[in-house]
Amino acid sequence: MNGPGTDRGRLLLALVLAAAVAVFTATVPLLRDWFDLRVYHGAVESWAHHGGRLYDYRVPGTGYGFTYPPFAAVCMLPMALVGLRTAIVLALLLNLAALALVVHLLTDGAWRRYGWYGVVLGACPLALFEPLRDTFSFGQVNILLLALVLVDARLLRSGHSRWAGAGIGLAAAVKLTPAVFIALLLLTGRRRAAAVATGVTAGATGLAFLVAPDASRFYWTRALWDTDRVGRLDYVSNQSLQGILARLGIEDRAVWAAAVLLVLAVWAVRVRRAAAAHDTPAAFALTGLVACLVSPITWVHHLVWLLPSFAVLYRAGRPRAAGALYAVLCTSVVWLWFDDASGIGGFLGANTYTWITLGLLLWLPVGHSSSRRPPLTRVTTATSSAPSAAAPETAAVSAHRVPPAGAADAGTGRGSGRDGGAGRRASSEPTGSTRPAASNPQSSSSRASS
């Protein structure tokens, strides 16, 4: 790590960077007022203490309620024992702990050799990353789910695979999107881990049926299939394939299904190539990318699943590419097209994060994990490519260049329906904006974001 050679110089640089990040976060992003956490807290409190039906709850003054699978509500039941402020503090601590674990797993603990200086240099760019900003500010659970999945990736990579799959299973029981990692396990021949993941998901779902039979029946028979709960597919925060098509005015589901099948085919080819090269990190990174693309709705905060890709890029010796793409995801650039995503400018700009995700799926380097690691697949053919030589030492994703605060002049947001401009009035609701709410408002807790 290049930088000042004295402790005084490092301290000065750390203070300057921290001040720049503080100015950026105080002036550019709009805080989300823990809206999603308020949905969770209000729903489980009403359910546990007032006999309310879990999926009937709405945040006062809004049309937003709980739409995750019932097992997620079971996991959140402890929130009913505390007040909202305490729940916010606990959520912050859990997310910080999960983020620390994610960074540790993605960097193989390389951050530790730099001590406090490395922690500060890593924390600054992480604080700028828009998906992380929204995850913390909304009180979302994405980083917790990412940590569960990456623990399984580490278990498979290290050969300690007896319980591999349990993290993926829990994540899929809380939200539906991580279930694509079960497909990864099957595709790469990890049948035991796939069975563990499937069993954990089924067991967790069964537990929810025992605890909340009525809520479970309602969710799996009605709420899951109720398209009115999805929200606005064309909203600029929806950075998925479906979001692109919706902003183009293409409503034919067959077109979306064809696009999804094509992307899944590319993913399968690339994952098999990564598995043949014994590159477990790349295989998991590619799967996080495809999960964001094929989900009907991928709000900006869901893009924390792109973090493993930046670690792969850095390990493959492409820090400039990693830093450039990461910097774009810090700028909130898509919100420049909040009001109007028409024309060629809207097609290119409003879908910027989706283009980055697609580009990473197509060109993410594979075959750069350490040759000392066991393969992801159990059996490889004689024609399979050999594992690469010892890869460059893994460095923290957080070591990427910090983008200048002035580069981001657009307000941040996601499926919050909130105004994207920095000069616009902030709102505590996900649809708070200067224009009327849509008839089908979207929320981070909508079915599609599961």
Automatic annotation (TrEMBL):
Renumbered residue ranges of the record's region Disordered: 369-450
Domain of life: Bacteria
Entries under InterPro entries matching the protein: GT87
Compartments where located: Cell membrane
GO MF term (any one): transferase activity
Biased amino acid composition, Low complexity: 379-411, 435-450
Family matches, as Pfam families: GT87
Family, per entry: Belongs to the glycosyltransferase 87 family.
Protein's UniProt name: Glycosyltransferase 87 family protein
Source organism: Streptomyces doudnae
